Amino acid sequence: MDPVVLAMAELMDAFEALVIVAGRNDRQVRAIAEEVERVVGERTGIKPLRVEGRDAGEWIALDYGDIIVHVFDEAVREYYDLEHLWNAAPSFRRSVAE
């Protein structure tokens, strides 16, 4: 739900972009993260350098080096509010059919 890409290059050197998306529950969070891994792998042959949080399923981070993908449970996304934390970063949203 509500995917957003934050362009981070102007704010830090560590990575180019944060991708943030949410699922409604831990099962959906895991499914989204697995699908991101599958599609990125199929299209680019790239696997994440690290994956954190898969067991808990509330917040899974996929580290692709220059791009970090955060897949949150709705409540956890709201709590950490990375979009607000990094509000100086240009953001790009695309609506997704539910």
* Rg estimate, integer Å: 13 Å
Strand order within the widest beta sheet: 3-4-5-2-1-6
User: What is the name of the CATH class?
Assistant: Alpha Beta
> How many domains?
1
SS element count, helices: 3
Alpha-beta content class: alpha+beta
CATH topology, anyone?
A: Beta Polymerase, domain 2
Low-confidence stretches: none
Proportion in β-strands = 25-35%
- Give the overall silhouette: globular
Question: Could you estimate the helical fraction of the residues in percent?
Answer: 25-40%
Distance between the termini: 7 Å
Q: Sheet with the most strands?
A: 6 strands, mixed
- N-to-C order of helices and strands: EEHEEEHHE
Q: Look at the structure and name the CATH superfamily.
A: Beta Polymerase, domain 2
Overall pLDDT: 91
What is the name of the CATH architecture? 2-Layer Sandwich
How many beta strands in the DSSP annotation?
6
Structure described in brief:
This protein is an alpha+beta fold and 98 residues long. The chain has helices at residues 26-44, 74-80, 82-85, and strands at 4-7, 17-23, 50-52, 59-63, 67-73, 91-93. It has one domain: Beta Polymerase, domain 2 (2-Layer Sandwich).
